[in-house]
Every structure is written in C-alpha cells, then in structure tokens.
Amino acid sequence: MKRIFSTCLLLAACYITKAQNNLQFNRVVIVKADSISNCSNGCPDTILLRTFTVSQGKVLKIESINFIPGNYYTLFLDNTPFAKTTSGLTNSFPIWLPSGTYSIYFGTYSPTSSATGQYAYLLSGIEFNVVQ
Prior knowledge:
CATH class: Mainly Beta
Largest sheet: 4 strands, antiparallel
Number of domains: 1
Distance between the termini: 38 Å
Radius of gyration: 21 Å
Low-confidence stretches: none
Oligomer: single chain
C-alpha cells in the first residue's frame, strides 16, 4: 500500500512540474562572416558588422562563438565587449537572448589602429519558441 501511494505521489509530482516545458525547439541559427583587411591607416571603427533578429515569441540560446580577431582583438555582441584576446576576458556559455535585434562585429577602442589582418567569426545557437 505504501509503495502504491509513493508511486502515485511521484507520478502526480511529475505531472504537475513543468520545468522548461515552455521552450520548444525551432531551429539552429548560424551567423558567420570572414574577411581579409589591408587597411593600415584611417580604418573603420568596426569590421564585419552583421545584424540578426530574434523574432517575437522566441529566444536564442548561443552555444558558442569562435573567432579570428585580426588586429582589432575585441569582438562585440550588441555593443558589449564579448571577448578580448589580449586581456584574458572570458565569457561563459550559454548566452540567452530574448526577442530583439542584435549586432556582432569586431571593433577597436583606438581609431588609429591598423585593421590589417584576417577576421572571421562563427556564432552558433539554438532558437526556441516560447510556448505559453
């Protein structure tokens, strides 16, 4: 009797609990860019600017961002320094983004920096529908 009661209680608890049942897989998202720059004077403040949108009713879980920084060193995700190779700035994954428009690019804090070099990044993530 005690065993039947415990089993029923466990099943009821599992039925009532809804941990992450409000997220439903939608698609895999990849944002990538690469370029070689020969600019050594009067270079732009940003290189490889790309924008991407997380639609209304969705969230994006960024699993990883791999990059080759050229001479600009800093990769920005929506105007926030994401990674800097010379300072040891680290980021932990995953990164969750709610619906909205975001930008990713290489940038510099010094407008006199040379942009000569190879640049590339690959952002990979999973987009989920938010189910109410």
